[in-house]
Amino acid sequence: MTGNELRKSFIDYFKTKEHKHFESASLIPDDKSLLLTVAGMVPFKPFFLGEKQAPFPRITTYQKCIRTNDLENVGRTPRHHTFFEMLGNFSFGDYFKKEAIEWSWEYITKVLKLDPERLYVSVFTTDDEAYEIWNKHIGVPAERIVRLGEEDNWWAAGPIGSCGPCSEIYYDTLRMGENNEEINCNPGDEGDRFLEIWNLVFTEWNRLEDGSLVPLPQKNIDTGAGLERIASVVQNKDNNFETDIFMPIIRGIEKVLDIKKEDFDITVKVIADHIRASVFLIADGVLPSNEGRGYILRKIIRRAFGAGIVAKQNLEITKDDLFLYKLVPYVVENMKEAYPELVEKQEYIEKVLRLEQERFALTLKNGIEMLTEEIEKMDKEGTKKLSADASFKLYDTFGLPFELTELILENQGYEVSEDEFNKKLEEQVRRSKNSRVTVSDMIKDEFIDEFFEKHGKTEFTGYEKFEDKGKI
Ligand code: ATP
Ligand code: MG
Ligand code: MG
Ligand code: MG
């Protein structure tokens, strides 16, 4: 089953259970307390809170989501993206735990035909009702049901608002003979053996400003299943990036950057993830800036660009290196069935990406020139170590990512301390706690380390060429 077929099969299944299909809402939520749409339920928050009456008691969606809290996970876990799609079914004061559990089980075991022996479920510590439904009604044996605490199995729309216990469905990805170190773990533990595929939220409570819980006027169901994760299971891949949702984009990256996934695994995954997020953010009207959503978009674009630069080991950056816009057609081609609006926005998205990359290339160029001056100063002073003040100034004033500073220096036989830099950064964040933090970008990534691990430290003279003005 392809990603497109899977998305459709989910919606079709819930239509047979009398759900109304709603289009995916924008990534920009109609909700001042939230920067981005982080889950399928976000567009329906007023219904969950009882502020508005839901137009239908049962709704199903595939919803575009962005989670910046997973930014650092991208490419390092098999299952996290910034942009992903959440499949969901919702009940507003209509059906509750029993039907939600029954249907999720029927869908994955009967429609998707996942092996029930490989499925595990979790319930909230005190949720005996959900436990009994799984155990007695569905027949999931006790050894495959775990009770988990607040961290995993309590869902809240925010510090205040609707919340309630969850029940999660996990898929055991263990293939005998592999992942041996993970055999003795449980769903919810660290590690990648148990893949969380679906979260059923039983929204029963409203948390007030003072922290107390009051029952919602009506009990609701909110579920979310990651399309990319289910695709990985259905397509028998051990990583979301190996599915047909990502591979065409990854092939595009390999072609455009002239690199191979085998050699640059994390880099390629980071770029594939970030280009999807960028395309969808821009399509929904976000523009790169130094604040709020615009800052998130800028950060994502710059991380992707930085990943490409480091992979290519090329600081020369000519017009040909502004590669992100060249990836847009691959994303559009892959996603247009579900999001036809991308087709008409494609040209605009490419333009925005190109402009932002050009701007960042200029920033990089200035930063690298300043670093060259710092190196000259160090030579005069007879030191090999860049001061923390200087490394921080390069980052903060000139927008040069610390990792690039480090990379360039190390390749020239100089050094810089990351700890001292981080201290400066922390001081600055503390100072600006009450004002808006608009620090320039940082590409804090292990892909640079990984790159060197794989390829060794080679001479890096790119920045000299940077002096050649007028490249950008
Ligand atoms: P995890 O514990 O794996 O980080 P989660 O508990 O944070 O997931 P939920 O908030 O329960 O995730 O979201 C519902 C579903 O959305 C998850 O079960 C998963 O299938 C999917 N999902 C969540 N975060 C991501 C992500 N960053 N990338 C891809 N899919 C995700
Ligand atoms: Mg998470
Ligand atoms: Mg979880
Ligand atoms: Mg969860």
Descriptive overview:
The chain is an alpha/beta fold and 472 residues long. It folds into two domains: 3-241, BirA Bifunctional Protein, domain 2 (2-Layer Sandwich), CATH 3.30.930; 246-466, no CATH class. It is 44% helix and 17% strand. The chain is built from 16 helices and eleven strands. The chain has helices at 3-16, 45-48, 97-111, 128-138, 150-153, 227-234, 247-257, 265-283, 292-312, 324-335, 341-381, 388-396, 402-411, 418-431, 447-455, 462-466, and strands at residues 20-21, 58-66, 83-92, 119-124, 145-148, 154-156, 161-172, 194-207, 213-226, 385-386, 415-416. The strands form two sheets. Strands 1, 2, 3, 4, 5, 6, 7, 8 and 9 form a nine-stranded mixed beta sheet that branches. It has a two-stranded parallel ribbon with strand order 10-11. Helix 3 packs across helix 4 (128-138) and helix 7 packs across helix 8 (265-283). It is elongated and about 75 Å long. The protein starts with a helix and ends in a 6-residue tail after the last helix. Residues 434-472 have low confidence and may be disordered. Bound molecules: adenosine-5'-triphosphate and magnesium ion (MG) (3 copies). Residues 168, 196, 199 line the site of one magnesium ion.
| Domain module tally | 2
CATH domain fold name of the largest domain: BirA Bifunctional Protein, domain 2
State the secondary-structure class. Answer: alpha/beta
**SSE run:** HEHEEHEHEHEEEEHHHHHHEHHEHHH
Alpha carbon gap, first and last residue: 44 Å
Per CATH, the architecture of the largest domain is 2-Layer Sandwich
**What ranges have pLDDT less than 50 throughout 5 or more consecutive residues?**
434-472
- The whole-angstrom Rg is 24 Å
CATH level 1 name of the largest domain: Alpha Beta
The averaged pLDDT comes out at 87
Task: Report on the biggest sheet.
Answer: 9 strands, mixed
CATH superfamily of the largest domain: Bira Bifunctional Protein, Domain 2
- Summarize the amount of helix as a percent range: 40-55%
Ions, cofactors and other ligands present here are:
adenosine-5'-triphosphate, magnesium ion
Strand portion = 15-25%
Please state the overall shape, judged from the principal axes of the Cα atoms: elongated
Total E-strand runs: 11
Number of helices: 16
